[in-house]
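Please, structure for the following, as tokens.
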Amino acid sequence: MPVRNRFAELLPEITAWRHDFHENPELMYDVHRTAGLVQERLTGFGCDEVVPGIGKTGVVGVIKGKSTASGKVIALRADMDALPIHEETGLDYASKTPGKMHACGHDGHTAILLGAAKYLSETRNFDGTVVLLFQPAEEGGAGGKAMVDDGVMDRWGVQEVYGLHNMPGLPVGHIATRVGGLLASSDEFEIEVTGKGGHAAAPHDAIDTTLVASQIVVSLHSIVSRTVNPIHRVVLTVGTFETDSTASNVIAHRAKLKGTVRTLDTENRTLAEERVRRVAEDTASAFGATAKVTWTPGYPVTENTAEEVAHAVEAAHAVTDSVDPETAPIMPSEDFAYMLEARPGAYIFLGNGDTAMCHHPAYQFDDSAIPLGCSWFVELCERRMPAN
């Protein structure tokens, strides 16, 4: 189809953008170089409006169609930040900054949306307005929330929002999505257990905090198996266990546990917090110790809305024969969830072929996936806002 042919022509240019972003990764909100290049290119494409500094370092571009009589406004989003990982790919365009790497493909997402922006600016074959959201700090900084809190949806009258993420393990040329929860919420907890320190030779004179904390770890893992409906997905992980002593002959006075809970619905998210607190506090109390639980809410569930998924799937079928509209949810989290809380929309997975998973030092983005990602964005806009 014409859209795909045009992006095949543009692929060398878009790939060069992607490689440049990859060589120069930036973390969290400190994406000044990346955002500056995005702003420069959007301006060069002839976007009707280009506004930096939204959500601290986010960039918004606006493209009006040949007509705007429909009044429709659709937002397309890409994330720009990298990860604090030392790259081990051996690529000739590998990261120039030790300890920083585009290990999740956000360089690819940014390049794809820039490619779509260039095409849409050239053709404007739609009736309405496209708002481009280039977001910082997806990797733990809640940049999506920062842009929403900065008024991005209201300021530009966004009615629907769409985004994509590359997916290692899915073949290039494949698009997958689903109605409802696609990615999980992610909350963190810290449990500080206080007992009574002592000598290892006299446990009867102490309250063994290590033992108490160990019992809490075991009991926490019963929450999922014995409290949550088994047809629902909840993942609880205790990631760290530390005591205030490193000596073999000391019973620690304090121990600290840290972990995460991931769920696919609000009800289980609430239940998990309640049960973690109860299990930790009551288990500690049974041994004569105390447990202080600190719960830190993270990203909410990335929850696609039905009508917008239907639009996303229709556009996907127009650009590829390989579409899964009922893919299984996965348990990582994604701060596009905040945008979906603010507006109806859909998030899709774009096949990235056989490579290491995201967040791995050997991960590689497959540039051959770029034309499909660009084509999907364009097809979505032209179908949602058909020109008269």
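The radius of gyration is 24 Å. The longest helix spans residues 2-23.
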